[in-house]
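Appendix B: complex inputs.
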Amino acid sequence: MDLSTAENIVVIGGGQAGAQAVQSLRLFGYEGAITLVGDETALPYQRPPLSKAYMKGEMAEDRLYFKPAAWYEDNKVETLLSQRVEKIDRSAREVHLEHGGKLAYDALIIATGSRPRALPVEGADLENVFDLRGISDVEHIRPKMIAGTRLVIVGAGYIGLEAAAVARQLGLEVTVLEMAGRVLERVTSPVISEFYQELHRGHGVDIRLGARLSKLKGEGGKVTHAVLADGEEIPADMVLAGIGIVPNVELAEAAGLPCRNGIIVDEDARTSDPRIFAAGDCTVRPLAHYARTGRLESVHNAIEQGKLAAAAIMGKPRPAIDCPWFWSDQYDIKLQIAGLSQGHDEVVVRGDRAGNKFAAFYLKNGRLIAVDAVNSPPEFIASKKLIMNGAVIAPDQLSDTSKSMKDIAAEAA
Amino acid sequence: MPTIIYIDHDGNERQIEAKNGESVMETAIKNSVPGIDADCGGACACATCHVYVDEAFMDKVGQPEDMEQSMLDFAENVQANSRLSCQITVSDDLDGLRVTTPESQH
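Resulting structure:
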């Protein structure tokens, strides 16, 4: 369907994907009306620093924003902030706002993102129990990030571990509770998990593996202890939950758009309705380099799908599809991840683990499908291209540090 | 406030008033300078903010650190004066800095 003559485009969600879609629409020459509806009070901003530099107080708030307020005025983008959408009426092609009012659309982009999974235990509603998703969460957490404060983090995923690193650097006493047998179990291999366990323990974080939280105990409405299934009570002045996210699919689902742990979209970020697109954490998309579909929780994905939706609406050629990539900063360690390691049948380690500079390559049937690069940008960058090319590389080549990644990549190409 | 001059691969110049403490990349993004994407938001993780620094300013901007240098090693069309603009912090010393964006980022 040609939508390049659209007069009204509505974007639901003011996160990375929504902001990118808006910018790309203007870049691709769209001249009609754009309305961006967001349920936060702030204009679109970067989320990654919230668990890193911004949480630590090393980054001023105005540096979080993608664009200054004037950009939206100059580019005639109407922003409706602190507004929730109540429903999408596909037959009338209207979006109903919770506070009343309707927005007509010729094309609609759903970029509703995701929300933190709520702690499923008694006491989760006590004071000083937080999750971490938006600027407002950090505003509540940061005043309590004071040396000596006892912080219990539930979940050893990236958010939990990044927050643990910030908290230790600010002098808090930090305990991390993880149900699984190792940290980052859902996303990486044992070699990387063990590295991060040692890293955090070396910085004085008490990492508890196989630890099941049974409830949070409080006094006067404020949390005082995290209680484990075995009855142990860990004193807590503050609790931070980082147990994953849930895609915000309810609006799409209620509008009859097919969803399966995410809004199902095609390679142009289009839903089953030719006028409706979806982008970012809330989607399930074709994974170009893996012959399957999946949901990606990343900056790369939000940007790429924002661009894809805008390009499809404007009838532009489809932008290049990148290999999925991610990063995480903890202490002075930068982890860069390219590709998706699920389904690998071999792990090859290259570099110096003790020197905090190494990479884990993931192979499947001899093909490189992903890399976790610890303080190793060459391994990350080179692998990104090799993964996209479906390169077959011998494990002993990858582990041979007498050869540069540049040479290895050149030989594999 | 220092002025940064961004030149695209066709030679078109844009003069931007920059804020001390922000990066050359952030200044570009906030002012919609084309050719600088900065997908990672300045985390030195993506190399989409590659610029060529005017020779006259090479000493003033300093040398890239290891992380940046490694990223540059794999960027396209790298030259001796290549830098990632997210790693250059604006200061009064850089008033008049001229940076050119590579064609591959347009």
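Chain B touches chain A at residues 22, 26, 29-30, 32, 39-41, 43-47, 67, 70-71, 73-74 (CB under 8 Å).
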